[in-house]
Protein backbone atom coordinates (compact mmCIF):
# COMPACT_ATOMS: atom_id res chain seq x y z
CA UNK A 1 0.00 0.00 0.00
CA UNK A 2 1.20 3.53 -0.70
CA UNK A 3 1.43 5.94 2.25
CA UNK A 4 -1.67 7.76 0.89
CA UNK A 5 -3.60 4.49 0.57
CA UNK A 6 -2.77 3.76 4.21
CA UNK A 7 -4.33 7.09 5.20
CA UNK A 8 -7.48 6.22 3.22
CA UNK A 9 -7.55 2.79 4.87
CA UNK A 10 -7.27 4.41 8.31
CA UNK A 11 -10.22 6.67 7.40
CA UNK A 12 -12.33 3.62 6.52
CA UNK A 13 -11.32 1.85 9.72
CA UNK A 14 -12.16 4.99 11.72
CA UNK A 15 -15.64 5.07 10.16
CA UNK A 16 -16.21 1.62 11.67
CA UNK A 17 -14.74 2.59 15.05
CA UNK A 18 -16.97 5.68 15.17
CA UNK A 19 -20.08 3.71 14.22
CA UNK A 20 -19.26 1.12 16.90
CA UNK A 21 -18.73 3.85 19.51
CA UNK A 22 -22.23 5.20 18.70
CA UNK A 23 -23.93 1.80 18.80
CA UNK A 24 -21.91 0.17 21.59
CA UNK A 25 -20.37 -2.18 19.03
CA UNK A 26 -17.04 -4.02 18.92
CA UNK A 27 -13.81 -2.47 20.23
CA UNK A 28 -11.38 -0.75 17.82
CA UNK A 29 -8.79 -3.54 18.00
CA UNK A 30 -11.29 -6.13 16.79
CA UNK A 31 -12.65 -3.84 14.05
CA UNK A 32 -9.14 -3.18 12.74
CA UNK A 33 -8.34 -6.91 12.66
CA UNK A 34 -11.67 -7.64 10.91
CA UNK A 35 -11.09 -4.89 8.33
CA UNK A 36 -7.78 -6.47 7.26
CA UNK A 37 -9.02 -10.08 7.16
CA UNK A 38 -10.35 -10.00 3.55
CA UNK A 39 -7.60 -7.59 2.41
CA UNK A 40 -4.82 -10.07 1.85
CA UNK A 41 -2.80 -7.60 -0.22
CA UNK A 42 -1.94 -5.67 2.96
CA UNK A 43 1.41 -6.71 4.46
CA UNK A 44 2.39 -6.50 8.12
CA UNK A 45 3.97 -3.06 7.56
CA UNK A 46 0.68 -1.80 6.09
CA UNK A 47 -1.30 -3.20 8.99
CA UNK A 48 0.98 -1.60 11.54
CA UNK A 49 0.93 1.77 9.75
CA UNK A 50 -2.87 1.84 9.33
CA UNK A 51 -3.39 0.78 12.93
CA UNK A 52 -1.00 3.48 14.15
CA UNK A 53 -2.73 6.15 12.06
CA UNK A 54 -6.16 5.09 13.27
CA UNK A 55 -5.07 5.08 16.92
CA UNK A 56 -3.35 8.43 16.49
CA UNK A 57 -6.64 9.89 15.28
CA UNK A 58 -8.58 8.23 18.12
CA UNK A 59 -6.14 9.63 20.70
CA UNK A 60 -6.24 13.13 19.20
CA UNK A 61 -10.06 13.51 19.08
CA UNK A 62 -11.78 14.35 22.36
CA UNK A 63 -15.33 13.56 21.24
CA UNK A 64 -16.86 11.16 18.72
CA UNK A 65 -15.83 12.64 15.37
CA UNK A 66 -18.43 13.18 12.65
CA UNK A 67 -16.70 10.52 10.52
CA UNK A 68 -13.31 8.95 9.82
CA UNK A 69 -12.29 11.66 7.41
CA UNK A 70 -13.02 14.42 9.96
CA UNK A 71 -10.88 12.51 12.48
CA UNK A 72 -8.00 12.08 10.05
CA UNK A 73 -8.27 15.75 9.05
CA UNK A 74 -7.47 16.61 12.68
CA UNK A 75 -4.31 14.48 12.36
CA UNK A 76 -3.55 16.29 9.07
CA UNK A 77 -4.09 19.65 10.79
CA UNK A 78 -1.26 18.74 13.18
CA UNK A 79 1.01 16.96 10.69
CA UNK A 80 1.90 18.43 7.29
CA UNK A 81 3.21 15.11 6.01
CA UNK A 82 -0.17 13.47 6.56
CA UNK A 83 -1.96 16.49 5.05
CA UNK A 84 0.16 16.16 1.88
CA UNK A 85 -1.15 12.60 1.39
CA UNK A 86 -4.70 13.89 0.80
CA UNK A 87 -3.84 14.22 -2.89
CA UNK A 88 -6.72 12.48 -4.70
CA UNK A 89 -4.40 9.98 -6.39
CA UNK A 90 -5.41 6.32 -6.80
CA UNK A 91 -6.52 4.83 -3.41
CA UNK A 92 -5.66 8.13 -1.67
CA UNK A 93 -8.09 10.41 0.20
CA UNK A 94 -9.64 13.27 -1.81
CA UNK A 95 -7.83 16.62 -1.52
CA UNK A 96 -8.75 18.70 1.53
CA UNK A 97 -11.38 21.36 0.80
CA UNK A 98 -11.72 24.65 2.64
CA UNK A 99 -14.38 24.55 5.37
CA UNK A 100 -14.52 20.74 5.61
CA UNK A 101 -15.55 19.46 9.07
CA UNK A 102 -12.54 18.68 11.25
CA UNK A 103 -12.98 16.70 14.46
CA UNK A 104 -12.46 18.38 17.83
CA UNK A 105 -9.01 17.76 19.32
CA UNK A 106 -8.51 17.29 23.05
CA UNK A 107 -8.19 14.78 25.85
CA UNK A 108 -11.82 13.90 26.57
CA UNK A 109 -15.36 15.31 26.28
CA UNK A 110 -15.86 18.45 28.34
CA UNK A 111 -18.13 16.84 30.96
CA UNK A 112 -15.49 14.16 31.61
CA UNK A 113 -12.66 16.71 31.80
CA UNK A 114 -14.72 18.52 34.44
CA UNK A 115 -15.23 15.31 36.42
CA UNK A 116 -11.51 14.51 36.20
CA UNK A 117 -10.60 18.04 37.34
CA UNK A 118 -13.07 17.73 40.23
CA UNK A 119 -11.27 14.50 41.15
CA UNK A 120 -7.94 16.32 41.37
CA UNK A 121 -6.66 15.13 37.98
CA UNK A 122 -4.82 18.06 36.40
CA UNK A 123 -4.59 18.41 32.62
CA UNK A 124 -1.06 16.89 32.32
CA UNK A 125 -2.15 13.91 34.37
CA UNK A 126 -5.29 13.54 32.24
CA UNK A 127 -3.23 13.76 29.03
CA UNK A 128 -1.03 10.87 30.21
CA UNK A 129 -4.15 8.69 30.27
CA UNK A 130 -3.74 8.57 26.49
CA UNK A 131 -0.04 7.62 26.41
CA UNK A 132 0.98 4.33 24.88
CA UNK A 133 1.14 1.64 27.54
CA UNK A 134 4.24 -0.54 27.92
CA UNK A 135 3.86 -4.31 28.08
CA UNK A 136 3.93 -5.47 31.69
CA UNK A 137 4.16 -9.07 32.74
CA UNK A 138 3.89 -10.94 36.01
CA UNK A 139 6.10 -13.93 36.64
CA UNK A 140 3.76 -16.75 37.59
CA UNK A 141 5.38 -18.25 40.67
CA UNK A 142 3.23 -21.39 40.22
CA UNK A 143 5.27 -22.16 37.08
CA UNK A 144 8.46 -20.28 37.89
CA UNK A 145 10.58 -23.43 37.60
CA UNK A 146 10.18 -23.25 33.82
CA UNK A 147 11.10 -19.61 33.60
CA UNK A 148 13.45 -18.22 31.00
CA UNK A 149 12.44 -14.60 30.51
CA UNK A 150 12.65 -13.18 26.98
CA UNK A 151 15.32 -10.46 26.68
CA UNK A 152 14.65 -6.75 27.13
CA UNK A 153 12.75 -6.80 30.41
CA UNK A 154 13.15 -4.32 33.24
CA UNK A 155 11.97 -4.88 36.80
CA UNK A 156 8.91 -3.00 37.97
CA UNK A 157 7.85 -2.15 41.51
CA UNK A 158 5.40 -5.07 41.60
CA UNK A 159 6.71 -8.12 43.48
CA UNK A 160 6.85 -10.33 40.38
CA UNK A 161 6.63 -7.66 37.70
CA UNK A 162 8.72 -6.95 34.62
CA UNK A 163 8.26 -4.43 31.80
CA UNK A 164 8.86 -4.65 28.05
CA UNK A 165 8.46 -1.99 25.34
CA UNK A 166 4.90 -1.67 23.94
CA UNK A 167 5.50 -3.55 20.68
CA UNK A 168 6.96 -6.69 22.29
CA UNK A 169 5.25 -9.85 21.03
CA UNK A 170 5.45 -11.80 24.22
CA UNK A 171 2.80 -14.36 23.20
CA UNK A 172 5.38 -15.97 20.89
CA UNK A 173 7.81 -16.68 23.74
CA UNK A 174 8.24 -20.06 25.43
CA UNK A 175 7.83 -18.38 28.83
CA UNK A 176 4.35 -17.22 27.83
CA UNK A 177 3.36 -20.48 26.16
CA UNK A 178 4.41 -22.50 29.22
CA UNK A 179 2.36 -20.29 31.56
CA UNK A 180 5.46 -19.01 33.38
CA UNK A 181 4.42 -15.41 32.70
CA UNK A 182 1.11 -13.55 32.47
CA UNK A 183 0.49 -10.25 30.74
CA UNK A 184 -0.75 -7.92 33.50
CA UNK A 185 -0.37 -4.19 34.01
CA UNK A 186 1.82 -3.23 37.00
CA UNK A 187 -1.09 -1.32 38.58
CA UNK A 188 -3.30 -4.38 38.30
CA UNK A 189 -0.56 -6.49 39.94
CA UNK A 190 -0.29 -3.99 42.79
CA UNK A 191 -4.05 -4.03 43.43
CA UNK A 192 -3.77 -7.82 43.83
CA UNK A 193 -0.94 -7.31 46.31
CA UNK A 194 -3.34 -5.11 48.33
CA UNK A 195 -5.47 -8.23 48.94
CA UNK A 196 -2.42 -9.84 50.65
CA UNK A 197 -3.87 -13.31 50.08
CA UNK A 198 -1.89 -16.11 51.77
CA UNK A 199 -1.95 -19.92 51.44
CA UNK A 200 -4.90 -21.64 53.11
CA UNK A 201 -7.31 -18.71 52.99
CA UNK A 202 -10.80 -18.48 51.56
CA UNK A 203 -10.72 -15.62 49.08
CA UNK A 204 -13.58 -14.43 46.86
CA UNK A 205 -12.90 -12.53 43.66
CA UNK A 206 -16.39 -11.12 43.23
CA UNK A 207 -15.93 -9.58 39.77
CA UNK A 208 -13.37 -11.96 38.31
CA UNK A 209 -14.07 -11.42 34.59
CA UNK A 210 -11.64 -13.62 32.64
CA UNK A 211 -9.51 -13.94 35.76
CA UNK A 212 -6.60 -11.52 35.30
CA UNK A 213 -6.48 -10.85 39.04
CA UNK A 214 -7.74 -14.31 40.06
CA UNK A 215 -4.59 -15.88 38.63
CA UNK A 216 -2.38 -13.51 40.62
CA UNK A 217 -4.34 -14.36 43.78
CA UNK A 218 -3.96 -18.11 43.10
CA UNK A 219 -0.19 -17.64 42.82
CA UNK A 220 -0.09 -15.65 46.09
CA UNK A 221 -2.06 -18.46 47.74
CA UNK A 222 0.37 -21.05 46.32
CA UNK A 223 -2.67 -23.01 45.13
CA UNK A 224 -3.59 -23.74 48.74
CA UNK A 225 -6.96 -22.75 50.10
CA UNK A 226 -10.12 -21.79 48.34
CA UNK A 227 -10.35 -19.12 45.65
CA UNK A 228 -13.87 -18.39 44.42
CA UNK A 229 -14.06 -16.51 41.12
CA UNK A 230 -17.46 -14.99 40.35
CA UNK A 231 -18.92 -12.90 37.56
CA UNK A 232 -22.26 -12.26 35.90
CA UNK A 233 -20.77 -12.47 32.39
CA UNK A 234 -20.72 -16.09 31.25
CA UNK A 235 -18.45 -15.68 28.18
CA UNK A 236 -15.90 -13.74 30.20
CA UNK A 237 -15.90 -16.12 33.14
CA UNK A 238 -15.64 -19.12 30.82
CA UNK A 239 -12.28 -17.83 29.59
CA UNK A 240 -10.87 -18.29 33.10
CA UNK A 241 -10.70 -22.13 33.13
CA UNK A 242 -8.28 -22.49 30.16
CA UNK A 243 -6.17 -19.61 31.50
CA UNK A 244 -6.03 -21.21 34.95
CA UNK A 245 -4.98 -24.51 33.40
CA UNK A 246 -2.16 -22.85 31.46
CA UNK A 247 -1.06 -21.03 34.63
CA UNK A 248 -1.22 -24.18 36.79
CA UNK A 249 -3.75 -22.51 39.11
CA UNK A 250 -5.77 -25.34 40.63
CA UNK A 251 -7.42 -23.78 43.70
CA UNK A 252 -10.09 -21.86 41.76
CA UNK A 253 -13.83 -22.51 41.76
CA UNK A 254 -15.90 -20.40 39.36
CA UNK A 255 -19.45 -19.29 40.14
CA UNK A 256 -21.69 -17.59 37.58
CA UNK A 257 -23.84 -14.98 39.29
CA UNK A 258 -27.31 -13.78 38.44
CA UNK A 259 -27.24 -9.96 38.22
CA UNK A 260 -29.36 -8.51 41.03
CA UNK A 261 -29.53 -11.92 42.78
CA UNK A 262 -25.84 -12.48 43.44
CA UNK A 263 -26.31 -13.69 47.04
CA UNK A 264 -28.41 -16.68 45.93
CA UNK A 265 -25.24 -18.35 44.62
CA UNK A 266 -23.03 -17.05 47.42
CA UNK A 267 -25.18 -17.79 50.50
CA UNK A 268 -22.86 -20.53 51.77
CA UNK A 269 -19.97 -18.04 52.02
CA UNK A 270 -21.83 -15.54 54.22
CA UNK A 271 -19.43 -14.38 56.95
CA UNK A 272 -16.84 -16.98 55.86
CA UNK A 273 -14.35 -15.29 53.53
CA UNK A 274 -10.96 -14.16 54.80
CA UNK A 275 -10.83 -11.65 51.96
CA UNK A 276 -13.11 -10.42 49.19
CA UNK A 277 -11.82 -8.52 46.17
CA UNK A 278 -14.34 -6.25 44.45
CA UNK A 279 -12.71 -5.32 41.14
CA UNK A 280 -15.87 -3.50 40.20
CA UNK A 281 -17.30 -2.63 36.79
CA UNK A 282 -16.42 1.02 36.13
CA UNK A 283 -15.99 3.75 33.53
CA UNK A 284 -12.43 2.57 32.81
CA UNK A 285 -10.96 6.10 32.69
CA UNK A 286 -7.70 4.54 33.91
CA UNK A 287 -7.42 2.25 30.87
CA UNK A 288 -7.70 4.76 28.05
CA UNK A 289 -4.06 3.96 27.16
CA UNK A 290 -5.40 0.62 25.91
CA UNK A 291 -8.92 1.63 24.79
CA UNK A 292 -8.74 5.33 23.92
CA UNK A 293 -12.11 5.22 22.15
CA UNK A 294 -13.74 4.28 25.48
CA UNK A 295 -13.91 8.00 26.29
CA UNK A 296 -16.15 8.52 23.26
CA UNK A 297 -18.54 5.88 24.53
CA UNK A 298 -19.00 6.85 28.16
CA UNK A 299 -22.11 8.83 29.11
CA UNK A 300 -23.05 10.50 32.40
CA UNK A 301 -25.91 8.03 32.76
CA UNK A 302 -23.61 5.03 32.35
CA UNK A 303 -21.23 6.48 34.89
CA UNK A 304 -24.10 6.93 37.37
CA UNK A 305 -25.09 3.29 36.78
CA UNK A 306 -21.53 2.08 37.45
CA UNK A 307 -21.42 4.05 40.70
CA UNK A 308 -24.71 2.46 41.82
CA UNK A 309 -23.52 -1.07 40.95
CA UNK A 310 -20.21 -0.52 42.75
CA UNK A 311 -22.01 0.47 45.96
CA UNK A 312 -24.29 -2.57 45.69
CA UNK A 313 -21.35 -4.93 45.10
CA UNK A 314 -19.49 -3.47 48.08
CA UNK A 315 -22.51 -4.17 50.29
CA UNK A 316 -22.72 -7.75 49.00
CA UNK A 317 -19.00 -8.24 49.61
CA UNK A 318 -19.33 -6.94 53.17
CA UNK A 319 -21.77 -9.78 53.97
CA UNK A 320 -19.27 -12.39 52.76
CA UNK A 321 -16.34 -11.42 54.97
CA UNK A 322 -15.70 -13.10 58.34
CA UNK A 323 -15.08 -10.96 61.45
CA UNK A 324 -11.46 -9.78 61.26
CA UNK A 325 -11.42 -10.33 57.50
CA UNK A 326 -10.83 -7.77 54.76
CA UNK A 327 -12.43 -6.29 51.68
CA UNK A 328 -10.44 -4.72 48.86
CA UNK A 329 -12.23 -2.36 46.49
CA UNK A 330 -10.64 -1.63 43.11
CA UNK A 331 -11.71 0.36 40.06
CA UNK A 332 -9.63 1.22 37.00
CA UNK A 333 -10.79 4.81 37.17
CA UNK A 334 -9.44 8.15 38.37
CA UNK A 335 -12.89 9.59 39.07
CA UNK A 336 -13.58 10.13 42.77
CA UNK A 337 -17.19 8.94 42.47
CA UNK A 338 -15.74 5.53 41.56
CA UNK A 339 -12.92 5.82 44.07
CA UNK A 340 -12.44 7.89 47.20
CA UNK A 341 -16.11 8.97 47.42
CA UNK A 342 -17.34 5.42 46.86
CA UNK A 343 -15.04 4.19 49.65
CA UNK A 344 -16.22 6.97 51.96
CA UNK A 345 -19.85 6.04 51.20
CA UNK A 346 -19.12 2.43 52.12
CA UNK A 347 -17.68 3.41 55.50
CA UNK A 348 -20.64 5.71 56.13
CA UNK A 349 -23.06 2.82 55.51
CA UNK A 350 -21.07 0.24 57.53
CA UNK A 351 -20.05 1.38 61.01
CA UNK A 352 -18.40 -2.00 61.77
CA UNK A 353 -15.77 -1.53 59.04
CA UNK A 354 -12.56 0.46 59.12
CA UNK A 355 -10.48 1.85 56.23
CA UNK A 356 -6.87 0.57 56.17
CA UNK A 357 -4.56 2.50 53.84
CA UNK A 358 -3.01 -0.08 51.51
CA UNK A 359 0.79 -0.09 51.60
CA UNK A 360 1.91 -0.56 48.01
CA UNK A 361 5.16 0.26 46.23
CA UNK A 362 3.46 3.02 44.19
CA UNK A 363 0.41 5.25 44.33
CA UNK A 364 -0.76 8.48 45.93
CA UNK A 365 -3.14 8.57 48.90
CA UNK A 366 -6.66 9.56 47.90
CA UNK A 367 -9.29 9.55 50.65
CA UNK A 368 -9.03 6.26 52.54
CA UNK A 369 -7.39 4.60 49.54
CA UNK A 370 -4.61 4.98 47.00
CA UNK A 371 -4.64 6.15 43.44
CA UNK A 372 -2.29 4.84 40.75
CA UNK A 373 -1.98 6.78 37.51
CA UNK A 374 -0.04 6.64 34.23
CA UNK A 375 1.41 10.11 34.91
CA UNK A 376 2.57 9.53 38.50
CA UNK A 377 3.22 5.79 38.54
CA UNK A 378 3.59 4.66 34.92
CA UNK A 379 0.74 2.19 35.42
CA UNK A 380 -2.86 2.09 34.25
CA UNK A 381 -5.07 4.27 36.41
CA UNK A 382 -6.59 2.58 39.47
CA UNK A 383 -8.19 3.36 42.79
CA UNK A 384 -7.70 0.81 45.55
CA UNK A 385 -9.06 0.84 49.08
CA UNK A 386 -8.84 -1.78 51.80
CA UNK A 387 -11.36 -2.22 54.60
CA UNK A 388 -11.15 -4.40 57.70
CA UNK A 389 -14.18 -5.86 59.50
CA UNK A 390 -13.78 -5.14 63.19
C1 LIG B 1 -13.19 -4.56 35.93
S1 LIG B 1 -13.97 -5.96 35.32
C2 LIG B 1 -13.13 -7.26 36.13
C3 LIG B 1 -11.77 -7.55 35.58
C4 LIG B 1 -11.10 -8.76 36.20
N1 LIG B 1 -11.14 -8.76 37.63
C5 LIG B 1 -9.65 -8.84 35.75
O1 LIG B 1 -8.74 -8.57 36.53
O2 LIG B 1 -9.46 -9.17 34.59
C6 LIG B 1 -15.50 -5.95 36.14
C7 LIG B 1 -16.29 -7.22 36.01
O3 LIG B 1 -17.47 -7.09 36.81
C8 LIG B 1 -18.43 -7.91 36.24
N2 LIG B 1 -19.73 -7.60 36.84
C9 LIG B 1 -20.65 -6.68 36.48
N3 LIG B 1 -21.72 -6.72 37.28
C10 LIG B 1 -21.47 -7.68 38.20
C11 LIG B 1 -22.20 -8.21 39.30
N4 LIG B 1 -23.39 -7.74 39.61
N5 LIG B 1 -21.66 -9.19 40.02
C12 LIG B 1 -20.42 -9.68 39.71
N6 LIG B 1 -19.70 -9.23 38.66
C13 LIG B 1 -20.21 -8.24 37.92
C14 LIG B 1 -18.30 -7.64 34.76
O4 LIG B 1 -18.87 -8.66 34.00
C15 LIG B 1 -16.78 -7.54 34.61
O5 LIG B 1 -16.24 -8.77 34.20
What would you note in describing this structure?
- The protein has 390 residues and is α/β, with parallel strands linked by helices.
- Helices cover 40% and strands 17% of the residues.
- The chain contains 17 helices and 13 strands.
- It has helices at residues 3-23, 28-36, 44-60, 68-78, 80-83, 110-118, 123-127, 174-177, 186-195, 212-220, 234-238, 240-247, 262-266, 294-297, 300-320, 340-349, 374-377; strands at 135-139, 154-155, 161-164, 181-183, 202-205, 226-231, 252-256, 273-279, 321-331, 353-355, 364-366, 369-372, 382-389.
- Strands 5, 6, 7, 8, 9, 10, 11, 12 and 13 form a 9-stranded mixed sheet that branches.
- β2 (154-155) and β3 (161-164) form a beta hairpin.
- α1 crosses α2, α1 (3-23) packs across α4 and α9 crosses α10 (212-220).
- The longest helix has 21 residues, at 3-23.
- The radius of gyration is 22 Å and the shape is globular.
- The termini are far apart.
- The mean pLDDT is 96.
- The structure holds S-adenosylmethionine.
- The site of S-adenosylmethionine has 19 residues, from α10, β6 and α15.
Amino acid sequence: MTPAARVQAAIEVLDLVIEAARSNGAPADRLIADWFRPRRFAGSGDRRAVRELAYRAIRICSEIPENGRAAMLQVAAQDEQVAALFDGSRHAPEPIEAGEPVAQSGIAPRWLMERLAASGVAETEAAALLDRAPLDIRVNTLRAGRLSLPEGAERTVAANGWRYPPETRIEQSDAYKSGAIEVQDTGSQLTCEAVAAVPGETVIDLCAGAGGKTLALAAAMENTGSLIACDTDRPRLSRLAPRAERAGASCIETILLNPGREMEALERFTGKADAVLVDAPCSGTGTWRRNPEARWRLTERQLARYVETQARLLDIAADLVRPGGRLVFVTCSLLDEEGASQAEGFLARHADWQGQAPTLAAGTPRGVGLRLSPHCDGTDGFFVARFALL
